[in-house]
Amino acid sequence: MLETSPRGSARAAVLCGVGGQLPRLKVGNDELAERLDTDDAWIRTRTGIRSRHFAAPDEATSDLAVAAGRRALANSGSAAVGTVIVATTTPDRTCPSTAPLVAARLGLTGVAAFDVGAVCSGFVYALAAGTGLITSGVTDRVLVVGADVYSRIVDPGDRQNAVVFGDGAGAVVLRAGHATEPGALGPFDLGSDGAHEDMITVQAGGSRLPFDPARTSHAERHFSMRGKEVYRHAVSRMAGSAQAVLEQAGISVGEIDLFVPHQANLRILRTVATDLGLSFERCATHVQEAGNTGAASIPLALARSHVDSALTVGDRILLTGFGGGLTWGSVLLTWPSLPPAVEPSRPEEGVAS
């Protein structure tokens, strides 16, 4: 049976900590333009991106995830959790999953730990998984991390994609609480359409097409995306999913204080906000400085907004994501009272240790 508060509200997952991490290396448009036969104006016009961060050669997804997770745990006031979930498309290895390593490096050996693979929707899916574990009574505290190192899978010579993606990690801590208190998550909306699984993909490296230098092409070994089709699906699915959550919650878009979409590119963000009837001023963005960081983009945007003091207790926040699969998802969140957070772009010492 679910715990209930004196007011009768059901047990819920409550956000109680947030943190982010970007790699040290910041790469501006001019640096990419030199080798991609393009220029800053072309990149900004099509994506809105000015810069992005790339992981060092010895820096893996787990390194960024550990740093972001450590910051989120510190922000929550406790280093103890019962579960670690890492949403990523770029795990350290195909096998095993990255979450157990992240947990161990955070001193959390023995806890449940697993990865979620839903590409850029991964963080919302991971939030749903963490919420389910808490509301069912399996655990009382969950660390949810979104982390990706796209520079490992995007062809650096790919003019269309190399300018869009960056590396990073963002994390939140969830605790057991009640649906009426600030920080409570829900309702959720999740969906997928596998008929379009080849729209955003890395063809080689799995059981369908194992990596083989003699049999797989250069293109098959790198990330590919059909941009125009992705644009249409991303706008439609994010707006539709976000609207579904508002309908479940019984509130209007006018009651949303901050909209935090997956940071795909600035054009998509503006279009989704317009389709929802939201002014762009209520849309959290950091894609201009960090690029598309995959599963890390939503928690990084939350961390950035918290650092900037753009959120107040009780603010209604709408999160929505879209990614390969195809997958999409949204969730509503009321903002809790949190201690000040550390600037996501300020590197920690020894992050890759």
Quick take:
The protein is α/β, with parallel strands linked by helices and 353 residues long. The chain is 29% helix and 24% strand.
- How does the overall form come out from the CA principal axes? globular
Average pLDDT figure: 93
Label the structural class: alpha/beta
Spatial sequence of strands, sheet with the most strands: 1-7-6-4-5
Written account of the structure:
With 353 residues, the protein is α/β, with parallel strands linked by helices. Helices cover 29% and strands 24% of the residues. It has a 5-stranded mixed beta sheet, with helices on both faces. Strand 4, helix 4 and strand 5 form a beta-alpha-beta unit. The radius of gyration is 19 Å and the shape is globular. Keywords: Acyltransferase, Cytoplasm, Fatty acid biosynthesis, Fatty acid metabolism, Lipid biosynthesis, Lipid metabolism, Multifunctional enzyme, Transferase.
